[in-house]
Amino acid sequence: MIAEEIIHELFKIQDEKYRDFNSKLIPTVDKESMIGVRTPELRKYAKQLVKREDVREFLHSVPHTYFDENQLHAFILAEIKDFELCIEEVKKFLPYINNWATCDQLSPKVFKKYHKELMPHIKEWIQSDKEYTVRFGIGMLMEHFLDEDFDLVYPEMVAAIRTEDYYINMMIAWYFATALAKQYDVILPFLENKKLDTWAHNKAIQKAVESYRITDEQKTYLKGIKVKGK
Predict the structure, then answer these.
(1) Are 81 and 113 within 8 A, CB to CB?
(2) How far, CA to CA in Å, does 205 sit from each of 81, 201, 225?
(3) Distance (Å, whole) CA 222 – CA 202
(4) Of 22, 90, 92, 172, which residue is most buried, by most CB within 10 angstroms?
């Protein structure tokens, strides 16, 4: 069984100190479910596995037991070159993601070439009732649609989201901070007109002010439109 083989291989490259460090950064994952394999090792292993004919057996053996398996799963999906197959596998995997790290590191390379085809799926993900599926959808908007394919419809989609889920709200803030760095003039009104939830509004400004891509003048102005007392 490839799944058992993979677990065996992951334990062979285990780094317990890295596991102990990483577990503090990802509170939604039980430390006991972490093996402790460093990201470069996982990426390297994923590139080997994606070439195997039986790799889909591993991809379909969800839910995985270990956090590191989820990470490896994400990195394998990143290497799939067929867009339709990649989308199919991403959709199967998303419901099993249970932490911000796996969510944010799931970034299929093939998506860069298929923006038009990707957008309907992003709209679907953003409307999901699953926290990390929504976070992933926002992340894909941030990664692929803030440059030449930018449209005001996209930040409107993100600004309309209302939730108590911390990891979605954090991604909303991250999205708008990044959008300010890339599309400052058209994104600023979202903050001036307070289109975001108060927490996300202030967190977006905080992140933008910390960015080297925002000018000192812009930072001063942004600090002035924070919502006081929050």
Answers:
(1) no
(2) 37, 6, 9
(3) 9
(4) 172
107-119 per-position pLDDT tens digit: 999 999 999 999 9
Parse the chain into domains and list their residue ranges: 1-111, 114-230
pLDDT tens digits, one per residue of 158-208: 999 999 999 999 999 999 999 999 999 999 999 999 999 999 999 999 999
* Residue count of the chain: 230
Give domain 114-230's CATH number out of 3.20.20.140, 3.50.50.60, 3.90.226.10, 1.25.10.90.
Answer: 1.25.10.90
Tokens 């002010």 belong to residue = 209
Over its C-alpha atoms, the chain yields an Rg (Å, rounded) of 19
Burial category of 17 from C-beta neighbours within 10 Å (exposed 0-12, middle 13-18, buried 19 and up): exposed
* Residue 18 CA, distance from chain mean position: 21
Single out the residue of 125, 118, 54 nearest to residue 95, CA to CA: 125
